[in-house]
Amino acid sequence: MKVILETDRLLLREYVEEDAEAFFKLNSDPEVLRFVPDKRLLNVEHARKILIDHPIADYRKYGFGRCACILKSTGEQIGFAGLKYLEELGEVDVAYRLMPVYWGQGLATEAAVASVRFGFAHLSLKQIIGLVMSENIASVRVLEKAGLRYVETVTFWGHTFSKFVIQSSSS
Question: What are phi and psi of 111, to 5 degrees?
Answer without folding.
Answer: -70, -40
